[in-house]
């Protein structure tokens, strides 16, 4: 009986209830979309970081991160290769020879990181070959082909077929260099990455630099959740002169941003929940005080005060279920639509690309987050009914029936 009575009381003043539900629904949808928007930023940064820069795990000589010297090559690399080939956790891996040097054209010169890559293995670990906007992927034949980014091409006034000169210090400390011809021009979602990297065949770079071992092994796993376990497995099974780091260790700033973004989402949710709670208290107080004489009659005919308290709490619970439930359902629909169409941010593309974020964003919300929002909305709604209930049950029946409406 209390359920039926509470439901009728909720809709006694349809306009007031509708306004309150509208505010709750709008708030829930807004909060979830904001959380999805912020999570989408982080997810996009993580995806692009893993794809283009770090993979899931990287192996270097232990001092290479502090001093990327050409002589600091991976120790006993031949013992690492079988571990990667035989592991079912490894999706793909690629070894690279890395050199910091200069790239020069007839127009300009600038510093660059030269990546000597295995052409077939690199295709499996990065989507570089799919992001060539002019020209073609590095050829197995031909003399010294090179891939440059669109940003580098614009600054050095290059096009496909242009000649550039790479110079750097070889393993003996002597300045060396060679002429390369632009085979293709690529563009990624990170302008910072594009500005700093160029790609050549590993054999060409090793020949010029007189270095015949690798500085980096990048590893991509089948399961993101096994990164830490596989990293620890490698640490225990390879030479201690090498360093094994996962993507979070390689990008500590991104790890900090993820933590900050999660904290930000929680703060936004708490602010909304508190504001919503006060709104429900306000609505219920007006509703309860309008029915003071009615509650007085109920108490006079024998209804216990606890049942009156439950009645008012049920009313606030119905408001929470309706507002939170409809809001979450609409949010799921909106997120599904945005995940299909994306949110275009071309007007901010330049700023986003500086942080490695695509100009089309896809919001991301987990089912756990939907559940947290739903539970918190319902819980706060129920708690919001406690104060109005207390205000009415502290009156005695005679006083309540004597009050004027």
TrEMBL record:
Q: Does the keyword rRNA processing apply?
A: no
Q: Name one GO cellular component term.
A: plasma membrane protein complex
ABC3 transporter permease C-terminal domain sequence ranges: 267-397
Domain spans labelled MacB-like periplasmic core:
17-234
- Which Pfam family name is an example for this entry? FtsX
Where does it reside? Answer: Cell membrane
Ranges that cross the membrane: 21-42, 267-289, 310-338, 367-387
What's the protein here called?
A: ABC transporter permease
